[in-house]
Design brief:
single chain
């Protein structure tokens, strides 16, 4: 079964990715949460081309996907769960939680260290907040993130099934929680007990540093509550808050070439 998962992993991930992307794009057209000043034609081609470059970079430098790394670790007996061999269901559940916690702390690290923030600020410099913002990451950040993920998978000895589920859910949740979609307030309150909603994550994309440094979770909201980084609402409200960061407010900064060189441009130090 594990080898079958590895063989079909790219097709599974691509199929779900395209399905969620299209569903969110249609939802944004039908029920947008915020009016957008910058047209989709100014942003979407560049954000989508960036994810293509990210994918090519990962496939070139990491021939084995995370599922493949999990299979290799199992064959070699590397990692905690390949030593103590817990029941599959328990190993999958714990792996999903630990991997999600790893991404939470990785996210905080990319905000805390200046040289990592230079990479991550490409994601935050989008001047609108919608489904394609969830794809807007610099290739160097994606490569570093993949290395951290591989290390966590090997150290934990995470089952290949857990890694595949985690990868699919992480990608889908990034598209979902960056959506410019309207949710009833009562539904948002209930959903954010279990998943990071667009209303919750939008706060993280505020221009206000106190709000930018909050709501770090991508999938599970529990870590923000546990570690004191949860913020329920933006001070200016969702309709009036400013998206982005101070240093990059020009429409030309939305272009692919500008995103790729942005980490190497000098800007005032982040407080």
């Amino acid at each position: 079964m594990a080898e079958t998962l590895f063989a079909y992993e790219p097709m599974i991930r691509l199929g779900i990715f395209i399905g969620v992307l299209l569903a969110m794009a249609l939802w944004e057209l039908a029920a947008p949460r915020r009016p957008q000043y910058y047209r989709r034609g100014q942003r979407w081609p560049h954000n989508l081309l960036l994810v293509v470059l990210d994918t090519l970079a990962v496939r070139l430098l990491f021939p084995l996907a995370a599922v493949g790394v999990a299979l290799m670790a199992a064959e070699q007996g590397w990692g905690l769960f390949n030593v103590i061999s817990p029941p599959m269901w328990l190993g999958v559940i714990i792996s999903l939680l630990v991997l999600d916690l790893t991404i939470y702390f990785q996210h905080r690290l990319f905000h805390a260290l200046p040289w990592l923030w230079r990479l991550h600020r490409v994601h935050h410099a989008d001047l609108e907040f919608d489904v394609t913002t969830g794809l807007r990451f610099h290739p160097l950040e994606i490569l570093l993130s993949m290395g951290i993920k591989f290390a966590a998978v090997v150290a934990l000895g995470a089952p290949a099934l857990a890694v595949l589920i985690f990868e699919v859910v992480l990608n889908a949740s990034s598209l979902f929680n960056h959506g410019n979609v309207r949710l009833p307030a009562w539904l948002d309150r209930r959903l954010r007990c279990f998943v990071v909603t667009p209303e919750m994550h939008r706060v993280h994309h505020s221009i206000e540093p106190r709000e930018t440094d909050s709501n770090f979770g991508f999938n599970l909201p529990w870590w923000d509550h546990l570690f004191g980084t949860y913020r329920a609402q933006p001070a200016a409200g969702h309709l009036h808050m400013t998206i982005g960061i101070e240093d990059f407010r020009s429409a030309r900064d939305l272009r692919l070439d500008r995103m790729l060189i942005q980490p190497f441009r000098s800007t005032p130090s982040r407080g």
